[in-house]
Structure formats: structure tokens, C-alpha cells
Amino acid sequence: MAWMTGMELSLRFMVDTLGMEFFCYHRDRPGSATLRDQLTEEHWSYMDRYEAELIARGPTLSPDGETATGSVHIVDLPDLATARAFVFDEPNYQAGVYRDVVLRRWRNVLGRTMWDFPGGREGGNRYLVLGLGSGPAADLVPPSDRDELIAYGPLLSDDGTTWVGTALLVRAPDPDAARAVLTPDRYADIEVHDWAFGGRR
């Protein structure tokens, strides 16, 4: 118990002393693929305004890799109000492409962006792993093999003090291997989605 208390104190220290990072996941509305395609340039132009703040971005995909099922953006912004504006002013959201949004404080444990990922943009299977939980914080420290991690960090309450899960992007052989990065019994649910590097090439 003392160890866990120390981990929680460490998390609070990081939150209090570093900037605010946010995990944003827009989930697509069924049947919105055509509308999404029509708005591609508007979406990219909107995201161009946040180029310096983006830590990671890209679509989640259907298992065949042909259809987008959502959009992930991990971004460093001044405060929660700015993050909410970022999420809800986005052109796809305004036009009705998305059915819902996950917006949570997040912590960049790896200290780098997806563009620094040693594996580059192509090759291998990439996944979004989203674990939602409560209680004592879990998986604050990533696995020792960080070379396969593209982004990794805890999901936090709006005030940054309460752990509510973990979100990561990872290159892995298959969805089961991606899911295994997290401690299964510490989460109410763990979602695994095919994911790809996004943005302009």
C-alpha cells in the first residue's frame, strides 16, 4: 500500500509541474464515411493550426484497414477550455461525422511525439489501446521494451489528480499482444482498435 501511495504522489507531482496534455478520441457515426472523405482537407487545415502542439494523431480503422472508425489526437494545450474548443470546433465533429468523443487529461510518459517513434510511419500492425478503470493507479510505468510504444500515458480526471485509465499507441503482432501491454484485472474495459499514423504525408 505504501508503494502505491508513492506512485500516486509521483503522479500528482508530475501533473502539478508539467504542462497539460489531452487524449482526444472521436468515434465515427455509422454511415459517415462519405461525409468524412468530403471534409478531409478541412480537417487537415484545422489540424495544421495545432501542428506544434500535436503529440500523436491518426485514424482508427476497421479490421480490413479500409474504413475509418474514429480519430485520435493527443495534444498539448494550455487548459481544459482550450482542449474542449479543439475537440468540438473540429470540422468533422461540427458536420456530424462523429457519434461521440472521449476527452481526458493525459500524461506523455515517453516524453516524445509519434514522429520520434523509432519504427517510423510504415510497417507492422499499429493499435490504439484504451483501458478505462478506477481506484489505485495502474500501469503508470510502461513496459521495458519501449521501442514498440508510439505513445503511452495515464488518463486523468479534469483536475489531473485522479487516475481513470491508460491510453497508448503501440506496434504489435496482433490485437491480443497489444492488449497485453496493460494489466487486465485493473480495468473495467480494454478496447483495442487498429490505428494508423495520420496527417499530411
Automatic annotation (TrEMBL):
InterPro entries (alphabetical): Dimeric_a/b-barrel, Sec-metab_biosynth-assoc, YCII
Specify the superkingdom. Bacteria
Q: Which Pfam families match?
A: YCII (PF03795)
Query: For the YCII-related domain, which residue ranges apply?
Result: 20-107
Q: Which family does it belong to?
A: Belongs to the YciI family.
Q: What is this protein called?
A: YCII-related domain-containing protein
Which organism was this protein described from? Streptosporangium canum
